[in-house]
Amino acid sequence: MSPEDIELKLKQLLTVAGLNIEVAMGEDAASDLKGFKKEINIILALIVAQAKKGPLIKPDGYGEPLLGALFGFTKIKPKALSIRIVYRPVELANGAVRMEIIAIGPRDKEKVYMLATRRVSSFKKEMLKRYAAKN
After folding, report:
1. Beta strands, E only, the chain
2. Global confidence as pTM
């Protein structure tokens, strides 16, 4: 599944749920997702569930803030799966929120956070390029 295919599926799920939330999947995160073939639908459902709870960082939403190089990012950490989904919530001018997913990986010894930290610079450039072109 390409990032666009994933985003389209998430858009459909979020629209059905009546949420004013967008999801942007970084190319690296889309590659991460491919490694969880059996869990893809569960992971997408977890993203939608986080959107329903409140994708912003506390106190404005449900997300726990990350620190250091991942300041401005938060995580989804389902108890049922040993994975972490790291994303950046972005408030948009139209009142919507965009969840920009940077990494999906194992909970194992902070591995996903190290992965996300290595990607921050290229991820921010990717999102800027993608959304600057739309504005």
Report:
1. 21-25, 74-76, 83-91, 97-106
2. 0.91
- Tell me the two tokens of residue 13: 């799920």
77, with CB counted inside 10 A (0-12, 13-18, 19+), is middle
* 86 in Cβ contact with 73 (< 8 Å): yes
Task: Classify residue 95 as exposed, middle or buried by CB count within 10 Å of its CB (0-12, 13-18, 19+).
Answer: exposed
Dist. CA 11–CA 53, nearest whole Å: 16
- Round to whole Å and give the CA distance between 132 and 135: 5
Q: What is the pLDDT of residues 72-113, one digit of tens each?
A: 999 998 877 889 999 999 999 888 999 999 999 987 768 899
The secondary structure of 78-101 as a DSSP string is -SSSSEEEEEEEEE-TTS-EEEEE
Cα torsion at 106, 56, 16, 81 (round to 10°)?
A: 20
Q: Could you read off the pLDDT of 12-35 as tens digits, one per residue? A: 888 888 888 999 999 999 999 988
Domains in the chain with CATH codes: 3-134 (3.30.2310.20)
